[in-house]
Amino acid sequence: MLSAVPPSTLARTLRRAEEALSKTLEKYSPARISWPSPSHQLELAKLVEALEPLLKPH
């Protein structure tokens, strides 16, 4: 229990909050999660390697 809240109540409340947030942000594009394309990921990795050579994979 967290702060005298039963786990089932906490889980239900969090699930409902997540659903409400998801529904609210559904059509708000700045809030969307997106990943760079594989080619852009390679470009970003090269930039990181240039700044932090110890992070380069072996």
TrEMBL record:
Origin superkingdom: Eukaryota
Name of this protein: Uncharacterized protein
Phylogenetic classification of the source organism: Eukaryota, Sar, Stramenopiles, Oomycota, Peronosporomycetes
